[in-house]
What does this fold into?
Amino acid sequence: MFENLALNNLTVRYGSHVLLENLCGSFSRGQINLVVGRAGSGKSTLLRVLAGFHKEYDGSVEADGVTFVPSGNISLAFQNPEALFFNGTVEDEVGYALKMRRMGRDEIEPIARSWLQKWGLDPEKCWHNHPLELSGGEKRRLALAACTIFMPPVVLFDEPLAGLDAKGQFALAELLAGMSSEHIVIVVTHEPEILLEQSGILLYLHSDGCRWFKSAEFLHSALIDRNFFPLPEWYHNAVGQFAQSSDLPPIKADEVFRYVKKRERMHADKL
It folds into this structure.
């Protein structure tokens, strides 16, 4: 188990193009670490470097002061991970990583069932189902469970909330927050407002470099200046009036869900 993952003057180039330059800072256990930025700012590239897929870079990455060598100590959940299902049952999908570690079926089953429950899935209802028979939110939770069942100390998520409805997004946000007590959880997202309540540190990548924020500082900047970072209209309507306050109110999942449904009904009435 690691306490922090530090970036020391991390620089990544593609040919003559510098995508990340002299990136310094650290991600910590005990909170969700967010990475945000516009398309092409280097968010996914940073995840690929941390996961060991992109090996050509300058600078260093350290875990608790020691050079970090990605292997079985890290997991990366790609965008839309449910598109990568390749097993015929939920049982085989969630247990595959343990099977590759040469664990027997009798040993895998109790671990896999417990892990599914942690991700909000009932193994009694879905254990023998094909993964594609699950609902959209259930598929996403199964895919993320399969990516993390071997309990790596560092877990990377690339747009885990994409494509989920409001309730699904908030349910998943709570699960990610729960994971952060035992893992260094790093999340790339275009929807930081849903995770900010559980987040402590936010890395904002942009064309001029990067900035590190505490979550509340980032929120104030984004609410006051919409050109700084585009938050959705529902969030501005919900908390924009508190933009100057040092204590922004929390946003509840059911409140957001009702607001989104109301806007959908209003849009339908206009058609």
DSSP finds nine helices and ten strands in the chain. The chain has two domains: 1-73+153-229, 84-151. The mean pLDDT is 88. Residues 235 and 256 are 8 Å apart (CA to CA).
